[in-house]
Design brief:
The chain is mainly beta. Helix content is 0%, strand content 58%. The strands form two sheets. Strands 5-9-8-7-10-6 form a six-stranded mixed β-sheet, with no helix packed on it. Strands 1-2-3-11-4 form a five-stranded mixed β-barrel.
Length: 122
């Protein structure tokens, strides 16, 4: 996923960075050498725990301007084990969730969860 670094802080477990993505502005814990503020970079996002539909993941009916702390995408698929594939811009975000998901093609919002970011090796 192509993203821009908009803010950097030192977090409890390493650099904490606000990334502007096609789906919103999310706080991530950076793995590896941190980028600089304003830098555009290609990243892979990893959600570090199992999420719950209706809590951290919810359907949204309208597209809004990117908001700090949320990631909006389109639900592509959910398999029998709860592995979720979200389309965010041209990238995919894979995560695990429990509960009853909406139908594929639904716009969903990811919020209030810890995300790790890794430099993408293209």
């Amino acid at each position: 996923m192509h993203a821009q670094v908009v803010r950097l802080e030192q977090g409890d477990i390493g650099p904490r960075i606000a990334l502007k993505t096609p789906g919103g502005i999310v706080w991530v814990y950076w793995r590896g050498d941190p980028p600089t503020k304003g830098q555009f970079t290609d990243v892979e996002l990893a959600v570090t725990r199992v999420l719950t539909w209706g809590e951290e993941l919810e359907p949204v009916s309208e597209v809004r301007e990117p908001t700090l702390g949320v990631l909006d995408g389109t639900l592509e698929a959910v398999d029998a084990e709860g592995t979720v594939t979200l389309r965010v811009g041209t990238a995919q975000v894979i995560l695990s969730a429990r509960g009853t998901p909406p139908a594929p093609g639904t716009r969903v919002r990811l919020r209030n969860c810890e995300i790790a970011a890794y430099p993408a090796h293209l």
